[in-house]
Amino acid sequence: MSNRQVLALGQIQPVLGNVKANLDKHLEWVEKARNEGATAVLFPELGLTGYHIQDLTLEVARKRSDEEIQSLVAASRDIDVAFSFVEESDQHLYYIAAVYASRGEIQSVHRKVYLPTYGMFDEGRYLARGSHFRSFSSSWGPCGMMICEDAWHFTAPYLLSMGGAKLLILMSSSPTRSLNQPDTFGSQAFWHRLLEVYAQLFGVYIAFVNRIGFEDGVNFFGGSGVVAPDGTWLKEAPILDETLITVTIDDEAVRRIRYTVPLLRDERPDLLVQELKRLERTSEGFEFR
Amino acid sequence: MEEKLYLQPGLTVRLLTAFIRDEVEKAGFKNVIFGLSGGIDSALVAYLAAAAMGKDKVHAVLMPYKSSSPASLKDALAVVDDLQIPHTVVNITDPVDAYFANIDGILGQPASPLRRGNRMARERMCTLYDLSVELGALVLGTSNKTELLLGYGTQFGDMASALNPIGDLYKHQVRQLSRFTGVPASILSKAPSADLWESQTDEGELGFGYDEADEVLIQMVDLRVSPHTLVEKGYDESFVRMIAERIQRNQYKRRLPVIAKVSSRTVGIDFRYMRDWGL
User: Beta partners for A143?
Assistant: First the structure.
């Protein structure tokens, strides 16, 4: 396992419903990332389809084995590639999926667990929800993937970190909202605070890759970046523009922070399990389930 | 309240100019067109559009009627001069008067000011959509959030557009951004008016001030505060009720025509695609 990894974050603007055009862009940007010396390139949530797929779901969905997905997987022969699309299962359920491909093969697939279906979001109407968070090995080291709303539930970074991940890849199609703050969008400010806290709590790198562009007036702000385990942002892409940024991460930073502030070492998953089981048994708990 | 209605002007202008550029270019257009009345809403749209597209791709259409205030035309021309954007003046007096000469004769009575105002708004819409074909330009809307919520606009008239960059801005916020973008002072300071007849002002016609309305609207709509709670907080009960009723009563203006469901997939009900499908 090498100590360092050069992550490229592909902050793209997908075309709604045009898988072919989006695939071409992914392939082109994989090449671009490789030319910039990256060892892994990450793309945003639903980069192959666009976000508001609604009744396009049936049309844009692909199986893992489909040619278009496999062509992107094949592009990972000498650079890791993480991307997202609508995955159709054998049971014909549709998931927002994130694939991590390395050495020309799929290493891991994450299906979005938390589907926002409130306010401006309607994901639960069209899509099935995933059922787990699993860490996996990338060419750099143990990683985990989350998709947008997943990260608004601390179970996601918690389970992935407890599962050994030292890099959390967070793919987003996060909309711009609330322009009443001094120098940042309200939704962006929330992500900022949230990811700084997670990085520090779990002693992990977090790579946030968010799309840009508009869909029927809804903007996605971009602002992709990487947070170090000490909670500082190593680099951030500009808002609103298509950009590829590269960031070097180093296991040494994880090592130091996990020695200095050994929160994960002292974590008590046994206690968590015990208390959740107790809540499940009694009338007190799980009101929200 | 200032705080609740505050918008970060620099970021908001970046977002709205990106919106215009992105939505226009994706749709395969190179130009935008809009009606420029001399009022603050369309002036702000002019400044945003010029910043987004470049001045040569923005076309302002000034459409006075014979009773329109000369000051309105002057203010609109000040915007055109300041931005150095192409413009066309289309006087709508003849077509509007010809229509009413005909219809008044058929009905045997003169039309009400409301009908005359609606007709003027729709004449302007027709002119914009006609010129949009000639110029290969998308029509920008100039209705703000306060008007949309209160239903203070003509359906298929001034409320019609392809893209509306200011439809999520309250009047108070339109003023704030207008100051920031450099809208001329004479426009910033005058009383808002639909200018459909002499000495008409919005606030006179509505019977309340925009700031007063915005203060209630942002709480009711954005912050989901119930009318009941607003009254408890000390807002005038009849005013709060009137605002709530206007929002509800005018919902039809904010929607496409209602379609009777017959088939298993019906446009607007369970045939669901974004307009930006494939763009």
Answer: A136, A167
- Asked if residue A288 belongs to a domain, the reply is no
Q: How far apart are CA A141 and CA B261, in angstroms?
A: 55
Interatomic CA distance for residues A101 and A4, integer angstroms = 18
Question: CATH code at A118?
Answer: 3.60.110.10
Contact A76, A104 (CB under 8 A): yes
Please state the domain count of chain A.
1
**Residue B76 covered by a domain:** yes
Please give the interface size between A and B, counted as residue pairs whose CB atoms are below 8 Å apart. Answer: 60
Its domain, for residue A72, covers 4-281
Q: pLDDT tens for residues B229-253? A: 999 999 999 999 999 999 999 999 9
The C-alpha atoms of residue B148 and residue A195 are separated, in whole angstroms, by 37
Q: Which residues contact B114 (CB under 8 A, 6 or more apart)?
A: none
CATH number at residue B156: 3.40.50.620
Q: Tell me the mean pLDDT in the region B210-221.
A: 96
Tell if the CB–CB gap between B278 and A15 is shorter than 8 Å: yes
The answer to whether position B229 is within a domain reads no
Tell me, yes or no, whether A289 lies in a domain: no
Taking an 8 Å cut-off on Cβ atoms, the answer to whether B276 and A181 are in contact is no
Is the pLDDT score of B197 beyond 50? Answer: yes
Host domain of residue B173: 2-203
Structure tokens at B116: 């005359």
From the CA of A88, how many Å to the nearest CA of chain B?
Answer: 19
How many domains does chain B fold into? 1
Dihedral over alpha carbons B156, B157, B162, B168 (to 10 degrees): -100
Does residue A123 lie in a domain region?
A: yes
| B 21-60 near A (Cβ less than 8 A) | 22-23, 26
Express each pLDDT in A248-268 by its tens digit.
Answer: 999 999 999 999 999 999 999
Chain B residues whose beta carbon lies within 8 Å of the beta carbon of residue A57: none
Helix (H) or strand (E) holding B19: helix B9-26
Structure confidence by residue, pLDDT tens digits, A144-197: 999 999 999 999 999 999 999 999 999 999 999 888 887 788 889 999 999 999
For the segment B207-217, the average pLDDT, to the nearest whole number, is 94
* CA dist., res. A10 & res. A253, Å (int): 24
Q: Do B277 and A182 touch (CB under 8 A)?
A: no
pLDDT greater than 50 at residue A1: no
- Rounded to two decimals, what is the model's pTM? 0.93
Strands B87-89 and A243-250: unpaired
Supply the mean pLDDT for chain B: 95
- A286 within domain boundaries: no
